[in-house]
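input
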Amino acid sequence: MPWIESPFFDSELAEADLAASDKQFVQTFADQGYVAFDTGIDTKVFDRIITALAPKYEEGLIKGEAIAQHRLQDAWKYNDDVKAIAADPFILGRLELLYRRRPIPFQTLNFDVGTQQRTHSDMMHFSSIPERFMCGVWVALEDVTLDNGPLHYYPGSHKLPFYNMTDVGIKATRSLEASNRYMDYADHYEEFIAKVAVNKGLKKELALIKKGQALIWAANLLHGGEPITRPGSTRHSQVNHYYFEDCVYYSPIFTDFALQDVFLRKIVDIGTGKEVPNRYLGETVSVKRTGSSRSNAYSRIF
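output
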């Protein structure tokens, strides 16, 4: 497991040959499940992204899915600046410090307004074996304020158990029916997570960060988007999702372990452009393509 989540973390951190500032960086992430930092990226890069992607937000639904116009998935495929942020050496170095494995950027999401998304854990969509070798990096392309829909998160919630579809009371499946009913499943799951946050007495905080800053969050950190209270306001941002090397990559929302039905993911390293194999304890996992319309969908019977 990631050393930040290990029962041996305290002793390992004490023995680690790290600068005091790096130790504090790691400790904060281990305790809170998130950490903010300055990327050092020239803000002109952010301005170019905002200008270049503006027409894309007007093109309507993305890839035929019921996703609003204000979200662009995998813009790194056609925009070099988006790709450069996802594979930025400083960001990758911060992630390797936190996880002690090579990070693999595999997805980007760009937004021109706040998502207003309900609280959730990314692990429902992106999980791994060993568990929790996944994280997100949220980069502010402009200043985030109270009224333009800031990100919210629950400090320490990454230490909660991971609740999968079985815990929520839904039999997951990779069938076409499940894909079409994704939003129904998501609503059920998000209702469950909202009750968890209330019953655990978790305290919500807001990420009011500045242009050029970023927030790393752990795979199981509960987070979402606040309402936009100033109509017409923008909140340009880029989310990068990362796995780490030598893992099995899968999606719990479509996985039924009890039925020996695992929705493995085909991921491509944004930095190298090469496909990354699923690996289980040092061995490559053989996978076969499914009939799913989702291009990254693979299945294997264990």
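quick obs: Residues 61-67, 291-296 have pLDDT under 50 and may be disordered.
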